[in-house]
Design goal:
Radius of gyration: 23 Å
CATH architecture of the largest domain: 3-Layer(aba) Sandwich
Shape: globular
Number of helices: 14
Strand order of the largest sheet: 3-4-2-1-9
Bound molecules: flavin mononucleotide
Strand content: 5-15%
Length: 398
């Protein structure tokens, strides 16, 4: 069969077009890191946490502090470092808007950083005395740097805390958990013995009414957040669109840590970023279909006053310890703090305190106000590390 010159040109054109489209797809896939694990300088802090250049200096504590759990990976911190003191400052410009209107979550995250720093102290020849800044979150000044705590350093030869080694192993795990394997009894007993601060309490549920009600509260609060346009836009502002943006910002949330299946992750990375409504609707689906139903453990950290600054820090310190001890034992953990985020939001909008009532019924003790919810279980997949800004970016020498 002979092919006419016109038909040949058309076929050649189609071939070139296919190549261009396929080449473009490969290029885009490469550009968006579709087949790659997150890598590059933004993840180096996970290797540098005990680097020889920091060892035995206050910067070693900062290198551990920046690996802490923190809301939406905003890393809302600056560290002012001298030979005898590290001042931990809330960078209130790195906020979540209506998602955290009182900077409560910001302060819980700062508490997580303080705990990592306290754990890194003995390993680097220091003891620390932590002094939290007093006062209430409702009176805090916005926009700049606000002192949250001071860590006074003195020389020590105390042995390192066993949780210190778990610092680089701790990652938020948003994958399904293996519910059939339950939650190890011994770890539950260890958790229950952990609250060390008289203003912090822990509630743990593996079954029964409390477990069911907390699971329901998490799902319902997620749906309420998804219906709140301002909240999801403020949350979305911290979603990073691909590896280039993450390499620039080194903070915020990325698809690789979202707990998606490999096929869904590849598709999501390849396609243009979803708008806030769609990405948050997908998050609500994940919460309802995966996060809550596969949780072997649901837990609550409560304080006596949710808007007290030192108590928010103390709650964060406890969460960090819980997550580190789970990570050391290969157990997965994941904050699911939506039911407290809606408490703040209802208070800000002077709405009926439905969310407050929902959690109060579970805690069933008016002396305690929940400030943090989470799940735990045996992992089905390892969680990846999230990006971090460097020690040099967030530490100021004085
Ligand atoms: C106060 C606070 C609230 C959080 N709330 C949630 C949450 O509701 N859902 C979630 O998936 N992760 C939540 N996280 C986890 C952070 O997103 C996570 O710590 C951060 O992205 C850094 O990742 P990493 O923990 O893997 O280092 C929360 C963390 C803190 C400290």
């Amino acid at each position: 069969m002979t092919t006419s010159p016109t038909r040949r040109r058309l076929l050649q054109g189609a071939g070139v077009l296919t190549l261009v489209v396929a080449g473009g797809a490969v290029w885009r896939a490469h550009d968006r890191g579709v087949f790659a694990e997150p890598s590059g300088a933004a993840y180096d802090p996970w290797e540098m946490w005990n680097a020889p250049e920091y060892e035995g200096t206050p910067l070693a504590l900062v290198a551990a502090g920046i690996l802490a759990s923190n809301p939406h990976n905003t890393q809302p911190w600056v560290f002012r470092v001298s030979d005898t003191e590290i001042e931990v400052l809330a960078d209130t410009s790195r906020h979540l808007g209506s998602f955290d209107p009182y900077l409560r979550e910001m302060h819980v995250g700062l508490g997580c950083a303080v705990e990592n720093m306290a754990l890194a102290a003995p390993a680097n020849g220091f003891t620390v005395e932590v002094e939290s800044a007093p006062g209430t979150l409702t009176a805090i000044e916005r926009g700049g740097l606000v002192r949250a705590a001071a860590l006074r350093l003195s020389p020590s030869s105390a042995a390192a805390d066993p949780l210190y080694e778990a610092i680089p192993k701790r990652h938020t795990n948003r994958y399904p958990y293996d519910l059939a394997r339950g939650f190890p009894e011994e770890m539950l007993r260890g958790f229950a013995a952990m609250p060390a601060d008289e203003n912090v309490a822990l509630s743990l549920f593996t079954e029964g009414k409390g477990y069911e009600a907390l699971g329901r509260a998490i799902i319902d609060a997620t749906d309420e957040i998804v219906a709140d346009h301002a909240m999801i836009e403020d949350s979305h502002a911290w979603f990073r669109d691909g590896p280039d943006e993450m390499a620039r910002e080194r903070s915020g949330l990325e698809l690789d840590t979202a707990g998606l299946s490999p096929a869904l992750l590849a598709a999501a990375k390849f396609l243009p970023a979803l708008p806030a409504e769609q990405s948050h609707a997908a998050w609500a689906d994940q919460t309802r279909d995966t996060h809550v139903p596969t949780a072997a453990l649901l837990g609550l950290i409560s304080v006596r006053d949710r808007y007290d600054r030192p108590q928010s820090l103390a709650a964060g310190r406890l969460w960090q310890r819980l997550h580190l001890s789970a990570s050391a034992a290969g157990i997965a953990m994941h904050p699911l703090n939506q039911p407290v985020e809606t408490i703040d939001r209802e208070r800000q909008l002077e709405m009926e305190a439905k969310s407050e009532a929902r959690l109060a019924e579970i805690v069933n003790n008016p002396d305690w106000q929940p400030t943090f919810c989470f799940r735990g279980g045996l992992p089905t997949r390892e969680a990846p590390a999230s990006a971090r800004r460097s020690v040099e970016t967030v530490a100021e020498k004085v």
